[in-house]
Amino acid sequence: MGEFLQMRRSLLQPADVGLPDFGERRRVPGLRRDELARLAGVGLSYYTRLEQGVSLNASPEVLDALAGALGLDEVEQAHLHDLAQATRRGGKRRRLAPEHADDATRQLLGALGAAPAVVLGRRSDVLAWNRTGHALFAGHLDPRIPDQPDRRPNMARLVFLDAHTRDLFVDWPRKARAVVGKLRLAAGQYPDDPMLAVLIGELTMKSPEFATMWSENQVRNWELAAYRMHHPLVGRMHLNLQTLTIPQESGQRIVVATAEAGSGSAAALHLLAQAGTPAVGREGS
After folding, report:
1. Does one domain contain both 76 and 139?
2. Could you tell me which residues come within 8 angstroms of residue 211 by beta carbon, excluding any fewer than 6 positions away?
3. 100 in Cβ contact with 109 (< 8 Å)
4. Whether 113 and 45 share a structural domain
5. Could you tell me if 79 and 121 lie in one domain?
6. Closest to 7 in 3D by CA, of 220, 214, 221
7. From 192's CA, which of 18, 48, 228, 278 has a CA 20 to 30 Å away?
8. CB contact at 8 A, 253 and 119
């Protein structure tokens, strides 16, 4: 939580929050601690302890005041509360159940027909996909591996470490930042997931781009996003990736790809659905 507060404070300038700027030379970027504490209506010593991780009992009202002073949006504000809750728990860990796509989720996946769809878990592991979803996002992989927990592909790992998936997104940096922001959100919601920590550590070590984006401390919600994609079988497409929350399974979502009716992208998706599954390869590293 302290790291998040410090990063967001560093991004604000006095003029951003209506404070006078006398052209003074600042030793650190952004607002000073005393300026933010004054804006939030809390004591400087108390705010300093929050940033240093010494105070673990920030009330919801104080967190909301800090969020307002920092100009956080709704997603960022919820993330701050998640981080505070994790800080209050300290060393007490929740036991998280292994993830799988249940029968009702698989029925929903089947009901989507030829629309490409994948089921993602809390850390973006692929728990299931339909045939077109597999062909669109990872046709070079064995279509059966989501059913094998120790081999499941992970969308964050694919986006950063797999050449096929990286080439799939024409505007890869925007997709990559969205992936990192969602992992940041998950890290606040599920701080007790050891495999999530392993994933973040692996990506930080193997991808300098991930390490840089992770250090920016930005969060992203699961929402509608439009991407330009270039598929090796059907070429360029403009697709909307829409996220459906699975209410009975915490942290699970179905991501569905759609295109404007009558467009070339819709025709490409139809062709992909008819083309069959590409040759099976192996996940890149």
Report:
1. no
2. 203, 204
3. no
4. no
5. no
6. 214
7. 48
8. yes
Tally of domains within the chain: 2
Task: Please tell me whether residues 159 and 250 are part of one structural domain.
Answer: yes
As a whole number, the mean pLDDT across the chain is 87
Query: Considering 89, 116, 140, which residue would you say is the last residue of a domain?
Result: 89
| Residue 281: pLDDT over 50 | no
Residue pair 42/65 in contact (Cβ under 8 Å)? The answer is: yes
Q: How far is CA 17 from the centre of its chain?
A: 28
Same domain, 118 and 69: no
Can you give the pLDDT at residue 34?
Answer: 86
What DSSP string runs through 67-113?
A: HHHHT--HHHHHHHHHHHHHHHHTT--PPPPPP---HHHHHHHHHTT
Q: What is the CATH number of the domain that holds 6?
A: 1.10.260.40
Residues 139, 269, single domain; the answer is yes
- Gap between the Cα atoms of 258 and 256, Å rounded: 7
Q: How high is the pLDDT of residue 157?
A: 96
- Domain containing 126 equals 103-275
The pLDDT value recorded for residue 122 is 92
Q: Is the pTM of this model over 0.85?
A: no
Q: Which residues does 268 contact at the CB level (< 8 Å), separation at least 6?
A: 231, 234, 235, 236, 237, 259
Give the integer Cα–Cα distance in Å for 147 and 100.
8
